């Protein structure tokens, strides 16, 4: 028998743990919940990061990207001589309107040129199925995998593109992936729309002739030598491209797909670190409570062992091992469950991020770190309790604890006239006798509420985000974007499309904002002074009227550039005559998504030194005319794309449903586990402490119901007190998590609805009731004689 | 005269028990000699347990000096006291203080694991007449049996001194006699100096020497010219 081979103290350990197995299990489960989340999130982070690194490397993902109007191919050799540049790839890239069978609303296709022979030098295209295009057939294309999946397209199928006003039939011969479109989102959109945005690779000659790009290019990618400065390369590239309408080069980190992926990964890392840490913290906390009480019950044993000559260190290690064994059991379960959940979760990422292979891998490092973390946390949780117990001088430990001093409770003292029932008096006095301990139990249960709130409130947070974005901010039904800026007359053309009710012009212009050494390249959005459809909204102040002669920036952009209201920025326009002008920051606004810069539309056109121009028109639609509107807008030659609010909202909802719901469910389940663990533990501890007292009462003739009421009444009071405290802690924790969660992409506000709080309370009350029942069963089996005979 | 194991001079002990101060010892002089069987007699609160705890290194006096052979216990720190208890002292308590989750044999092994050249747990239990109950847990043993396990646990390390605090206090006459028999046998066969605390004057007859404590002071010392056996004690 294994137990025989263990040293005596370890045998004691095993048997003691077995005796308190209910509690030990409850704690182990909480530890396990923390480790599960830790492993799930961090292994996904780890897997995605490895996959990304391998893919970028393998596919020769470029280090610098630039787009321009048109430059001759003769520029290429000069690009190759730029400092640090090891490879240059020039391409023709164009966005077109697609007419996809069985889809009334228009979609956008991005056409990217492939060299006439061989593979692209940079940004390799991975062929998932089908074959490579035949250079001799100008209508053959490779299509992006997500788009094909969404529309059920396969090699051999075809679709129509409106290229320069002419309908052209494209035949899909292969399905492909690219490191540039791991996350395929259209510029200016906030969520990927796989239905309405497809990437197509086609022969360069065919594409160039359709867009008058023969002998030229409008897109450059550079690869740099390891250690070469990206900043220097960009600084050298921009002046070269400027005469050709260069719109400012960006480093890999700001390339849309790479940037989104990076943001997603850093969120995953924050989430994977902070949330499990909270769980483990709670586990340490209940471990502390449980061990404090368990050690109080072992007072005499500790004294005896000391009298026998066991040193403080040996005994402390013995009791710390209690905590370690419990934590190790929880952690082992957590690693297994975490690996399983992680493998499920990675499939979700496959929905949004397309790699040639995204395989799940639980690295030994993540597993070891999570187990080690939980052991450290458990030891920390245990050490205070153990130190206090072991420090007790043996002669003192030998004596039973002095009986607690009881007084009348304050409630009794205040309401002298009212005679409280005996049970209520006992409950109150007992709570008052040890206010510190009552407080600890309250905080423990409150943590369960808090963790639940954090988990469930994310639904509210996302609802608030959608409400902000799609109800308060975007009031248009659709936005029609033009291939090139058009005169203000285009607004009238759009207004005369069927079903259009209200229109609002927009003028976006690519620009580089520079403040000292900090720069950011983005699109400045020009809007009417008080836009009605594309509203600019500050979370505190509501709709904002755009001020004259000044920029309105997202607060986050202000932080990125380190500027505030009144400061000046250099605005370098990256289109047309490329004016450079210093402008004042008029206002920072607290907005929710992305980095935004707004100006009055007339200030934009004045800056550009051109007449009234628009680049897009926002509009509201008569639902009855929707289909006719789609039909006509698809045929408009100048239209580069149409984005639809409904579609965006639907995509957003789908993304949330697929992505967040699983995570939220995981959080909620584990939070419920914590709630049960904490309450059950508190109940068991009170039971073991008071079994003697309760048995005495039974001997005196109290019924089971009466003594249950005394014990469970106390729990009920503690639970009730913990509910509001938990809501407060949950609010603070939520703020803390969002602090780590918020980035350039999202800025969420931690909010929760009263209904959410009600749900969390209900769950905790249920968990408390279940624990109460479990303890009540033990109370019913109380062996009166035995309890009264033994010392403890 | 045999050499002294313990020499205590002018020992006082003051406790702070919550809001009250208790003076447990008020200047006690005390000796225990090699191989001696000594009974410490006195009513509750006379300071017997306090004195025994100090001798056993479980507690330190407020003032005065306690020598174990030539070691000064009053100046020893916690680690030194632990080592002292481990190597030299066997304890028997009124409430046995067995570890409930360990069997009789394991409770004894708790000691034999941490000392050099101990007795076999089985031999120690045999000596107290429990050779047939090795694998019983405390809850499966009677009070007297539990106390004899405690004695076996105390002597298994072959201590120089055995300190017993009211070893029969929780027992009836018959089982109490068995326990006292076991203690006497250890003293006789192993030559272990033994101090037994009791408030039961009848037990005094089996001692070599009787020290009476009252109100924290030594009230008298009496040497028995003729020791009587346990079976002859008049309870």
Briefly characterize the structure:
Chain A has 23 helices and 22 strands. Helices cover 54% and strands 20% of the residues of chain A. The mean pLDDT of chain A is 84.
Describe the overall structure.
The complex is a heterodimer of chains A (792) and B (235). With 792 residues, chain A is an alpha+beta fold. Chain A folds into 4 domains: 202 residues, no CATH class; 198 residues, no CATH class; 201 residues, no CATH class; 122 residues, no CATH class. Chain A is 54% helix and 20% strand. Chain A has 23 helices and 22 strands. Chain A has a 6-stranded mixed beta barrel with strand order 3-4-9-6-8-7. Chain A has a 6-stranded mixed barrel with strand order 13-14-20-17-19-18. Chain A has a 4-stranded antiparallel beta sheet with strand order 2-10-1-11. The two termini of chain A are 31 Å apart. The model of chain A has no long low-confidence stretch (mean pLDDT 84). By secondary structure, chain B is an alpha/beta fold. Chain B has a single domain, classed as P-loop containing nucleotide triphosphate hydrolases (Rossmann fold). In chain B, the strands form 2 sheets. A 6-stranded mixed beta sheet of chain B has the order 6-7-8-3-9-10, with helices on both faces. A 4-stranded antiparallel beta sheet of chain B has the order 2-1-4-5, with helices on one face. In chain B, α3 crosses α4. Chain B is globular, with a radius of gyration of 17 Å. The model of chain B has no long low-confidence stretch (mean pLDDT 88). The chains are: A alpha+beta (792), B alpha/beta (235).
């Amino acid at each position: 028998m294994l137990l025989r081979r263990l040293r005596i103290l370890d045998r004691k350990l095993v048997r003691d743990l077995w005796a308190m197995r209910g509690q030990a299990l409850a704690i182990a489960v909480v530890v396990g919940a923390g480790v599960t989340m830790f492993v799930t999130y961090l292994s996904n982070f780890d897997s995605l990061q490895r996959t990304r690194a391998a893919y970028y490397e393998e596919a020769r993902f470029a280090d610098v990207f630039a787009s321009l109007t048109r430059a001759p191919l003769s520029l290429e050799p000069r690009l190759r001589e730029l400092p640090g540049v090891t490879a240059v790839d020039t391409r023709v890239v164009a966005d077109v309107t697609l007419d996809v069978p069985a889809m009334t609303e228009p979609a956008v296709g991005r056409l990217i040129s492939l060299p006439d022979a061989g593979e692209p030098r940079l940004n390799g295209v991975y062929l998932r199925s089908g074959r490579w295009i035949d250079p001799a057939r100008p209508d053959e294309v490779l299509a992006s995998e997500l788009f094909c999946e969404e529309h059920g397209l396969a090699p051999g199928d075809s679709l129509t593109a409106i290229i320069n006003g002419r309908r052209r039939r494209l035949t899909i011969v292969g399905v492909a992936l690219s490191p540039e479109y791991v996350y395929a989102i259209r510029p200016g959109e906030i969520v990927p729309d796989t239905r309405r945005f497809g990437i197509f690779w086609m022969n360069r000659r065919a594409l160039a002739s359709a867009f008058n790009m023969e002998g030229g290019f409008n897109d450059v990618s550079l690869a740099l030598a390891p250690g070469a400065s990206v900043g220097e390369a960009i600084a050298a590239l921009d002046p070269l491209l400027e005469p050709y309408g260069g719109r400012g080069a960006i480093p890999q980190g700001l390339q849309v797909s790479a940037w989104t992926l990076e943001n997603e990964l850093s969120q995953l890392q924050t989430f994977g670190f902070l949330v499990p840490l909270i769980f483990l913290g709670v586990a340490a906390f209940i471990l502390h409570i449980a061990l404090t009480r368990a050690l109080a019950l072992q007072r005499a044993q500790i004294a005896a062992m000391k009298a026998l000559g066991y040193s403080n260190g040996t005994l402390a290690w013995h009791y710390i091992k209690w905590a370690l064994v419990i934590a190790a059991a929880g952690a082992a379960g957590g690693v297994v469950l975490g690996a399983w959940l992680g493998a499920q979760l990675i499939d979700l990422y496959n929905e949004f991020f397309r790699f040639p292979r995204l395989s799940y891998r639980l690295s030994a490092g993540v597993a070891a770190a999570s187990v080690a973390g939980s052991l450290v946390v458990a030891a920390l949780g245990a050490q205070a309790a153990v130190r206090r117990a072991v420090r007790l001088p043996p002669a003192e430990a030998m004596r039973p604890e002095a009986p607690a001093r009881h007084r009348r409770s304050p409630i009794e003292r205040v309401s002298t006239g009212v005679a409280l029932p005996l049970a209520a008096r006992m409950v109150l006095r007992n709570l008052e006798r040890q206010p510190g301990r009552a407080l600890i139990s309250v905080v423990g249960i409150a943590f369960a509420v808090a963790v639940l709130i954090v988990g469930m409130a994310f639904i509210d947070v996302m609802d608030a985000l959608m409400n902000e974005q799609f109800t308060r901010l975007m009031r248009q039904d659709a936005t029609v974007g033009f291939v090139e800026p058009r005169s203000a007359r285009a607004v009238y053309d759009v207004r005369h499309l069927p079903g259009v009710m209200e229109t609002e012009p927009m003028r976006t212009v690519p620009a580089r904002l520079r403040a000292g050494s900090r720069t950011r390249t983005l699109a400045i959005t020009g809007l009417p002074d008080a836009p009605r459809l594309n509203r600019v909204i500050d979370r505190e102040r509501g709709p904002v009227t755009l001020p004259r002669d000044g920029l309105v920036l997202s607060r986050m952009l202000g932080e990125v550039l380190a500027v505030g209201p009144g400061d000046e920025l250099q605005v370098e326009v990256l289109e047309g005559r490329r004016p450079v002008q210093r402008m004042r920051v008029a206002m920072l606004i607290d907005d929710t998504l992305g980095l935004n810069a707004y100006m009055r539309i007339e200030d934009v056109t004045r800056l550009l030194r051109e007449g009234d121009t628009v680049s897009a028109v926002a509009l509201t639609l008569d639902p009855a005319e929707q289909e006719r509107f789609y039909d006509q807008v698809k045929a408009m030659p100048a239209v580069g794309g149409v984005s639809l609010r409904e579609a965006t909202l639907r995509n957003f909802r789908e993304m949330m449903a697929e992505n967040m719901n699983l995570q939220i469910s995981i959080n909620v389940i584990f939070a419920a586990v914590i709630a049960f663990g904490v309450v059950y533990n508190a109940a068991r501890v009170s039971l073991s402490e008071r079994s003697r007292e309760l048995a005495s009462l039974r001997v005196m003739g109290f019924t089971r119901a009466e003594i249950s009421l005394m014990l469970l009444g106390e729990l009920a009071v503690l639970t009730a007190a913990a509910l509001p405290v938990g809501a407060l802690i949950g609010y603070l924790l939520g703020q803390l998590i969002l602090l780590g969660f918020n980035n350039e992409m999202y800025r969420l506000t931690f909010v929760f609805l009263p209904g959410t709080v009600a749900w969390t309370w209900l769950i905790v009350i249920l968990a408390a009731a279940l624990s109460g029942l479990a303890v009540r069963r033990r109370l019913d089996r109380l062996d009166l004689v035995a309890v009264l005979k033994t010392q403890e | 005269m045999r050499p002294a194991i313990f020499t205590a001079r002018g020992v006082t002990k003051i406790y702070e028990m919550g809001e009250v101060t208790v003076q447990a010892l008020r200047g006690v002089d005390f000796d225990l000699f090699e191989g001696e069987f000594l009974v410490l007699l006195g009513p509750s609160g006379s300071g017997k347990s306090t004195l025994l705890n100090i001798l056993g290194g479980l507690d330190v006096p407020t003032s005065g000096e306690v020598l174990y052979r030539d070691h000064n216990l009053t100046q020893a720190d916690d680690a030194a006291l632990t080592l002292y208890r481990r190597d030299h002292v066997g304890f028997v308590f009124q409430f046995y203080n067995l570890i409930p989750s360990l069997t009789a044999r394991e409770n004894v092994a708790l000691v034999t694991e941490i000392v050099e050249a101990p007795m076999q747990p089985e031999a120690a239990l045999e000596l107290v007449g429990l050779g047939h109950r090795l694998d019983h847990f405390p809850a499966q043993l009677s009070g007297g049996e539990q106390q004899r396990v405690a004695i076996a646990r105390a002597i298994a390390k072959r201590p120089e001194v055995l300190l017993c605090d009211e070893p029969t206090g929780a027992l009836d006459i018959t089982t109490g006699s068995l326990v006292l028999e076991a203690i006497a046998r250890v003293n006789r066969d192993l030559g272990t100096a033994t101090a037994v605390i009791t408030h039961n004057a009848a037990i005094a007859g089996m001692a070599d020497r009787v020290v009476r404590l009252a109100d924290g002071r030594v009230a008298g010392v009496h040497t028995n010219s003729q020791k009587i056996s346990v079976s002859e004690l008049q309870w």
